[in-house]
Write a structure and sequence with these properties.
Elements (H helix, E strand, L loop, with lengths): L1 H24 L11 H9 L10 E8 L2 E9 L7 E7 L12 E10 L2 E10 H4 L10
Antiparallel strand pairs: 1-2, 2-3, 4-5
Length: about 140
């Protein structure tokens, strides 16, 4: 009986340790990467130099639990024909509406032309997106 009790205790301790380790691997948004509506407006209003080559994008933080991406879309003439877009990275199991975003179609440079592309914008910047400068 003593060995069964020891084995059970060992299993419980091992499972507890594994649970703690797995919990530590999950990265939840912290105050350092959480964006407020005011932060989004400030980022959208910033004048930035466009990249000189190719499209670039990166996650700038989390807003209402959803990652926010800043992307530079470049056509064949970088940086002259470059568009900066700030939008939600919509999870595959969600829709823009379900996460509280606003879907808008904007013209994106492609080669020597432009094509409409839909993005999911945070509400704080969606209504006024066209008024924010994409480049200096």
């Amino acid at each position: 009986m003593f060995s069964m009790k020891t084995t059970s205790t060992t299993k419980v301790l091992t499972l507890s340790a594994l649970s703690l380790i797995l919990s530590a691997c999950v990265s939840l948004p912290t105050n350092e990467n959480t964006l407020t509506d005011a932060d989004l407006i400030r980022v959208a209003q910033q004048k930035e130099s466009a990249p000189t080559e190719g499209a670039q994008q990166w996650i700038i933080g989390v807003h209402n639990g959803i990652e926010v991406v800043k992307s530079f879309q470049c056509s064949d003439l970088c940086p002259q024909n470059t568009l900066r877009v700030i939008y939600y990275d919509v999870p595959t199991d969600a829709t823009c509406d379900s996460i509280g975003g606003v879907t808008k179609s904007i013209l994106v440079p492609i080669a020597i032309t432009v094509m409409p592309k839909e993005y999911c914008f945070p509400k704080a910047i969606a209504d006024y997106w066209e008024s924010y400068p994409a480049k200096p």
